[in-house]
Structure formats: C-alpha cells, structure tokens
C-alpha cells in the first residue's frame, strides 16, 4: 500500500489534468485507500487554508485529499462563476484521480458545492460531513457578501486575517481559538500555494449570492449518512441552516458546538476529529 508523507505542513503539492482540461493542484496524505476523504474548502481557500491538525489527524486512519478550485491557487483556468460549475470541476477532479466512491468533508462554500455535485452524481459519495454550511436558498446565505466585505474592512483596519472575525466569536475564547488556528495555517514554510486574489473573492461571492437566492433542492433524495457540524453562533452561514440540513437529510446526525461560530470545527478540532473518525468508521 502506498503511504504519503504524514504531515500536511510538508506534503508535496501534486498536479493532475482532468477531462475538462483543468490542471488541478492537490495534496494528499495518509495510506492510499479505495475510498479517500476529499476536502472541499471555504470561500477563497487555497491548499494552505486546510487546518493541518484536522488533516494530519484524519490521515492517521484515512487517505485525505485537498485541492484548489479552478482558477484558485495553483490550479489552472479562470474562476468558476457558479456553484454548479464548481461542482462540475470537483467531479472532474475526483474522476481524474480514478475514484468511484469517496467520502467528503465539506466546509462552508464547500458544502454548497458538494450538494450540487451529489445531484449530478448521486452514487459517488459514501459518507458526508457538512460543516458551517447550509442548503441552497437557505436563511441568510445570500447575505454572506455584505458580511464578508464588512469583516474584511475591519480586518484591514486591525491588521489581522479576515478569518479572525469571519470564523470565530469576538469572545476571549473565540479570539484565542482564532489566533491558534491562524498560527497553524502558517506552519507550512516551504512550497506554499499561490495567494488568492481579490478577483476570486468577487467571483465566488457573486456565485454564493446567486445560489442563496435559488430555489431549495429536494435533499430527501440523499439517503447517505451525513454528519452536520456547526457552532451555535455562525454569522456567515447562520446556524439555523445546520438544523435545516439535518432535518431535510433523511440519514443525518447534528452536532452544534456551544460558544463557537462558523469555524467551530477549527476551534474544537480535537473533538471534531474524534467525531469525524467515528462517523467515517461506523
């Protein structure tokens, strides 16, 4: 069995060209398996935005793969303009890797994308974790544009990463969790990914705004096991959306972390990993 380097901070970036002509940048670690975990990241995330504590811990028992969306980081092409197009790209990437079945960990915008992908390829996903996300047309999803710009402006004035405000509560515990998370994202010191530009932010926010106004999907057709995770004070994708997802997905479990926001899985990464490993193994 092939084993990939065991830390996300040092694993090399690989490249593969899919049938759609896009050359995807990706990283994988853990022992190669027939069913890997594919990580779908958040708004404007590149490979360096995956939490190394979560990636390393999951890789102890699974093969886990992160990738850059089209036009993002080191992946080729222009930014996908719709959530559906991002889903088509994600599907092309998974097929290029040769997998017939995958498990998914999807955070925030990644959760929007994977819902569209499953509608396109209903039998591809075996088990799914949806963190800090919501359904198409869900409560307050289209408002993420306004909130994101406000918090980016606040971050510029206070000289911090916007995720400090977007992902975490403004409590002492939230601020401490934010600092620790942002420090973890800096652990990789060599061969870091290409920075994400403002144009990508604009394009992805527009895609989210449109998706947030679209009619809800029939989620009852997805009978696979789903674990829904969020904090009790998610401002980006309001927490009621997690309750909505769990109610509309027939085989869903729900866990809401107290005193946490959008990035609850990063704030409580040790507990999240335990839950994720148990869920994937069940």
UniProtKB/TrEMBL annotation:
GO molecular function ontology, one term from the record: hydrolase activity
> Which keywords does this chain's UniProt record carry?
Hydrolase
Signal sequence span is none
Q: Does the keyword Transmembrane helix apply?
A: no
For this protein, the record's InterPro entries field holds:
AB_hydrolase, AB_hydrolase_1, AB_hydrolase_fold
For the AB hydrolase-1 domain, which residue ranges apply?
A: 52-266
A Pfam family assignment? Abhydrolase_1
- In Swiss-Prot or TrEMBL terms, this protein is called Alpha/beta hydrolase fold protein
According to its UniProt entry, this protein's organism is Spirosoma linguale (strain ATCC 33905 / DSM 74 / LMG 10896 / Claus 1)
